[in-house]
Design goal:
Elements (H helix, E strand, L loop, with lengths): L1 E6 L3 H13 L2 E6 L2 H10 L4 E5 L7 H11 L5 E5 L4 H9 L4 E4 L4 H15 L22 H14 L5 E4 L6 H10 L8 E5 L5 H9 L16 H4 L4 E5 L6 H13 L1 E2 L8 E2 L3 E6 L3 H6 L5 H7 L2 E4 L9 H17 L5 E2 L1 H9 L5 H15 L4 E2 L16 H10 L3 H15 L4 H8 L3 H6 L4
Parallel strand pairs: 1-2, 1-3, 3-4, 4-5, 6-11, 6-12, 7-8, 8-11, 13-14
Antiparallel strand pairs: 9-10
Helix pairs in contact: 2-3, 4-6, 6-7, 13-15, 14-18, 17-18
């Protein structure tokens, strides 16, 4: 039988976690504090630890550190009511097998516990602790971004080629910078180049350098970006736009770990981690013959998919308020609040330009705002407005004469659908608190 230690200072959470794992055959021991958990771990044998992070005395991170020192093969799952990307990455980097947000998804807990037990029987490799350099990450509380950052933390400390895929403006560069900052190469250079902005000959010279006299105007020998990024990270943005010739040269670098400068005959060893990024479907480019299949396989060792802003739920308002505060600070004025109408407009927009579009919209709104509150009219006209309910919807209500309670449930569902399940925005439209919305009965 699997013995599991559950650590949480909230009685209801302990009971819920224990009930779920006991149904899966675990023998569960519950304690309310990390210090007591450390004592139990010293005296008894356990196969799994599930611990809250924020506790009154000894935190989950302190408990995790104690486990790593004394029982490095014992899997620890951390649970938090304040989920955010930096915490997710810290948890994974410090040795936790996973980081779950409250309220805990029961199926996710069960699956994570099963994987943790299986992996605990496999040999572990030590993970180097990341430095404090560049720990700036995206503001986020959404599940898709937390999943992305947990995956990022797992691969950052390796030397694997990382490919970042996402729509324009979704934050691919920031993800690339975070990969570098969380890697063992954090103290080395971070070099980025936009492959789509250069012609084939210029890109070739930029990446690999050139010897004196290699072409007209090459008056001196010049090192390329692969050499400049030695000991660090080289980001190749818009990788899908490179020519077949440069594709072949890049493949050689990835396979052999060496480059040849333009006009040169000497192989030069290089030590730069390669991170690529694009909004294109590289698999489709391979099928269409625009990209070499062998290069595609080299580039897609690890793929990090950045979700678009419209799929990130409440992140929209978190980011909007952050951009408002930052823009107001730059202008030397108090940060205005977002009106309910403005929030509804933001929630209804599809944001094809993603985070970059939102940042620009908030900069414009702060500049146009004449009071202490941003109105819908302060937003760019391209953001749009919330449409009025259709006559068809009213007709459907009249057709079956629902009860007032059912009518309320239907209206709440319509608002949630309209805001794409963004509960903060929906609560603003409904004129209620977010917690009130969460407590409302659903059909």
């Amino acid at each position: 039988m699997i013995r599991t230690l559950i650590v949480d200072d909230d009685d209801l959470t302990r009971q819920l976690l224990a009930h779920v794992l006991e149904r899966d055959g675990h023998e569960v021991v519950c304690v309310a504090d990390g210090a007591e958990a450390i004592e139990r771990l010293a005296a008894e044998s356990f196969d799994l630890v599930v611990s809250d992070i924020q506790m009154a005395k000894t935190s989950g991170f302190e408990l995790l550190a104690a486990v790593r020192r004394g029982q490095p093969d014992l899997p620890v799952i951390l649970v938090t009511g304040y989920a955010e990307p930096a915490g997710a990455m810290d948890a994974i980097e410090r040795g936790a097998v996973d980081y779950l947000a409250k309220p805990v998804d029961i199926q996710a807990l069960r699956a994570t516990a099963a994987r943790a037990i299986e992996r605990s029987r496999m040999p572990r490799e030590p993970v180097a602790a990341a430095g404090e350099v560049g720990k700036r990450v995206m503001l986020s509380t959404s599940a898709p971004m937390l999943a992305l950052y947990k995956q990022l933390a797992q691969v950052a400390s390796t030397n694997a080629v990382v490919h970042i895929h996402g729509e324009s403006g979704a934050g691919k560069e920031l993800i690339a910078r975070t990969v570098h900052a969380r890697s063992r190469r954090a103290s080395g250079p971070f070099v980025a180049v936009n492959c789509a902005a250069l012609t084939e000959s210029l890109l070739e010279s930029e990446l690999f350098g050139h010897e004196r006299g290699a072409f007209t105007g090459a008056a001196t020998t010049r090192r390329g970006l692969f050499e400049e990024a030695a000991g660090g990270t080289l980001v190749l943005d818009e990788i899908g736009d490179i020519s077949p010739k440069v594709q072949g040269q890049l493949l050689r670098v990835l396979q052999e770990g060496e480059i040849r400068r333009v006009g040169g005959n000497t192989a030069i060893p290089v030590d730069a981690r390669v991170v690529t990024a694009t909004n294109r479907d590289l698999a489709a480019d391979v099928a269409a013959g625009r990209m070499r299949q062998d290069l595609f396989y080299r580039l897609s060792v690890v793929t990090l998919a950045v979700p678009p802003l419209r799929e990130r739920g409440d992140d929209l308002l978190v980011l909007a308020r952050h951009f408002v505060a930052r823009q107001a600070q730059e202008l030397g004025r108090p940060a205005p609040a977002l009106s309910e109408e403005a929030i509804a407009v933001l929630a209804a927009h599809r944001w094809p330009g993603n985070v970059r579009e939102l940042e620009n919209a908030m900069a414009r709104a702060v500049a146009m705002c004449q009071g202490h509150v941003i109105l819908a009219t302060d937003l760019p006209s391209t953001v749009g407005a919330v449409g009025a309910p259709s006559a068809g919807a009213a007709g459907a209500i009249d057709a079956d004469w629902p009860t007032l309670e059912l009518l309320q449930q239907r209206y709440v569902d319509k608002v949630l659908a309209h805001t794409r399940q963004n509960k903060t925005a929906a609560a603003a439209v409904l004129g209620i608190d977010r917690r009130t919305l969460q407590r409302m009965p659903r059909p």
